[in-house]
Design a protein that fits this description.
The protein contains 4 helices and 2 strands, in the order H-E-H-H-E-H. By secondary structure, the protein is mostly helical. This is DUF2795 domain-containing protein. InterPro entries: DUF2795 (IPR021527).
Length: 64
């Protein structure tokens, strides 16, 4: 995935409270000024709830 990195996600999700619903994380990312591609990738994950940032990263990036 060119241009997006786990660091981008960490910045986009700064201030998120966990556990969190995917929709809540999408809102946090948007309010933090996240790139549209990053928000799209997050919103397309099959996971509806995340217990922490590591789960978000795993769902978005898989085993890259």
């Amino acid at each position: 995935m060119a241009g997006l990195s786990p660091i981008d996600f960490q910045k986009a999700l700064k201030g998120a409270d966990y556990p969190a619903a995917k929709d809540d994380l999408v809102s946090v990312a948007r309010s933090n000024g996240a790139d549209d591609g990053l928000v799209k990738k997050l919103s397309e994950t099959g996971t509806k709830r995340f217990d922490g940032p590591n789960e978000v990263q795993k769902a978005v990036f898989g085993n890259e």
